Amino acid sequence: MHALRQIAPRRSTRVSTLSVAIVGRTLLAVLAFSVLTFQVLAQEARVPAQEARPAGATLRLRGDVTARGDVLTLGDLIEGAAPETAQRPLFRAPALGATGTIQARRIADAVAGLGLGLGPVETGGRVQVSVQRAARRVTQPEIEAALKRALESGYGVDPRNLAIRLDGEAPTLLAPLDLNGQAVALDLSYDPRSRRIAGLITLGERQASLRVSGQVMEIREVAVLGRSLNRGETINAADLTLERRPREATPSDAQGSLGDLAGQVAQRSLSAGAILRSGDFAPPDLVARGEAVTILFDSPGLNLSLRGLANEAGRLGAIITVTNPVSKKILSATVTGPGRVSVGPAPLVRQASAALDGSALQR
Questions:
Q1: Backbone CA torsion sign across 242, 246, 249, 250
Q2: For residue 183, what are the domain limits?
Q3: Residue 213, beta-bridge partner list
Q4: Which of 118, 133, 148 is where one domain is finished?
Q5: What is the pLDDT of residues 170-228, one digit of tens each?
Q6: CA distance 299 to 296
Q7: From CA 79, how far away is CA 98, in angstroms rounded?
């Protein structure tokens, strides 16, 4: 046996007649649904603005800015902007190498004018922002190198011994940072007689250019004194440097290399920075005036020596007079070393007599 299932009573369907109240309620429901739909669509339209400014993010005015392009974007001036809005352009940058300012109020107005609902910008008390435009600076060394390359290729001039004095005060070519190639001189003109030169210095395909002119000078290396010396002082290696100077501004007898200058003696007072000339220095004296010296007599088959007295100072190879202290005879001798002189045989005296008694030294 099993339990019997109760039969649920059937409810009859209630049919209502259409009335004014029912129609009014239906219209109110449709109107409410339409308002709700409009609010949802408006909310969806505001989603990009909310994404542009994450919850809790604060927009702050940056400090002084360095612009690397022609345009200042939202991200250049404002901290806290989302990446998708940071590239929105706001202001034009200053000219290459120049500096400009923007009022903080104008920046805030520009941000509000984007219509992104980003909210207020915190200025941190700043009244204005300073903007400097970054630039590549092609200065005189690069300009001179470009002109030299053009001289070599166009006129066959060896640039190694040339310098170029540009007209004006340190001309500089300003260029965008992305123009990082080598500077080139175009439209070059050069007069070998007057040595005047002119050309157009360019970067890229004439994306940045500067016309320059100047004077080509021949240069040479000269020895320059690094410190002041008094007459008779010895020149040390540390006192000397080689410098490149215009040839027309250097003496014709200027010393062109350091050579054996170290150890020589100043023949006059010399100031620091002086270009050394051939008469400014000389080897040191190996014999001093009044010094006791060894006198050597050297001839074939005969070598004699005795002590004498130098009557004058002399450097290596110099001819000085010495006195024989025994005979008091004055002899001409050649300085051969420190405290040493050499006396050769007299040409009119027979060699045999000199060889037998050495009278040239003993009389």
A1: positive
A2: 138-219
A3: 198
A4: 133
A5: 899 999 988 888 999 999 999 999 999 999 999 988 889 999 999 999 888 888 998 89
A6: 10
A7: 24
